[in-house]
Amino acid sequence: MSADDQFYREYILDHYKNPRNYGRLDHADITHEENNPLCGDVVGMDFLVKDGVIEDIRFHGRGCAISQASASLLTERLKGLSLDDARKITKEDVLGELGIDISPARIKCALLPLKVLKVGAYGLAADDDEDEE
Amino acid sequence: MYDVAAVRRDFPIFDNGLAYLDSANTSQRPRQVTGAMMEYFEKFNSNIHRAAYHIAEEATERYEGTREKVRAFINAASTKEIIYTRGTTEAINLVAYSWGRANVHPGDLIVLTIFDHHSNIVPWQILAQANGATIEYVDIDERGELRQDQFRDLLERQPRLVAFSHVSNALGTINPIEEMVALAKKAGATVLVDGAQGAPHQGVDVRALGCDFYAFSGHKMLGPTGAGILYGRRELLEHMQPFMAGGDMIKTVRVEGTTYHDLPWKFEAGTQAIAEVIGLGAAVDYLTELGMDNVREHEREITEYAYEALSEIDGLTMYGPPPSRRAGVISFSLDGIHPHDLATIADRDQVCLRAGHHCAMPLMTRLNVPATARASFYVYTQKDEVDRLVGSIKEAQRIFK
Predict the structure, then answer these.
(1) Minimum CA–CA partner of B337 in chain A
(2) Structural domain for A93, as ranges
């Protein structure tokens, strides 16, 4: 494999090794955690919401580089965003932001953080994001 | 002298440089197996046991011929004791439903192990719940071997059923099954051995072993998916009710009731996986020709080589016993690198590696790891494939450093 490998781009590794918004919030308005039982990946998020806007956000969890980097990237995007706008984030947005070609077996890793957002913030069924695979 | 290069030539999948280290998951199939199946499809494709024309007789003969090959392979007393199933999972479910529902009673104890495959745990959990039995799990020690002291203590409570694997699919631990079966039988238990990782890799003699049931899958021993074996002692099978009902398992059907077919067909309802069973027969022939002692010796050698190579890598933790006490399976983890990331990087080098919980979630919980990477070996594995795995691991460490 070459050094400039498509899959493990530098910024994905950077988000994995130095995750942004990592940790917990003491007085979160929304707290939700999801896991992928197949590989043991866990991602949880705490949201601080004021006037419909995500004022602060933290994530925690463990797992592969894809799930953890995807969580880190998503929190960066969510911070300061209104819940209405956050709701519009799609799978394609998340995968686009990762910017890599993800095999079917790893899609669940990449989309786990989005599932945390959707189920946690909007109470959408956990299966919602499984139909397009 | 075992000629792995010659063996490899029988497996077309290796023609393009694939390193396949996931045989505990499913094995590859040699030309002899796919050829036997193709011959059925192209020359005598027909249903068995009923048609009066010659190609159906040929199909029936080949299909039933596998039974004798399997009987000899595991040294069962009779072909009546060889039941075709779709695989190990179905074989265990057959016993859990057919024998279990009738013989496990409220308050009975079932003894399992913490490192068994889900297929040898969940059917018993369902049975225990339905019939009011309790389950105890034998733990492992720090080497990844079953705690025999605890096993003995549990046997004193006179379990109705004891079920354990011949070889742990996640750790590769070879259980001392001769001793464990003898102790469990002495305690009055019915004993099932999950041989999914056993029979494909070493010689098995069910009569010497003395177990009541031994289950294994064709697809882990060079055969196709969809054909597996339940060995059962005849006395038990005779008294068991059918698992599935329908065509082929009956003798006569009247509106007042039905009489069932004799063994082994009593347990084979519906149109069978004819080509797959024929393929399994060819796989047994292939392994018999290699010689199971040679197979075991080859795997032991490769496992030792891999164990040595992996133990030289910093930040790598292996789980399970030393190579002398394990089959061709090595589970491991890398500091700071998730097994799935390693498997993805290995895949880019055409190295097939398993990452996950290996259908042994109670064990993963016990080891306190979410998942492990697993390399497993078989008759065609060569040292070069292990070297390539080492290369992928080092590449992953370089990327993630």
Answers:
(1) A64
(2) 10-122
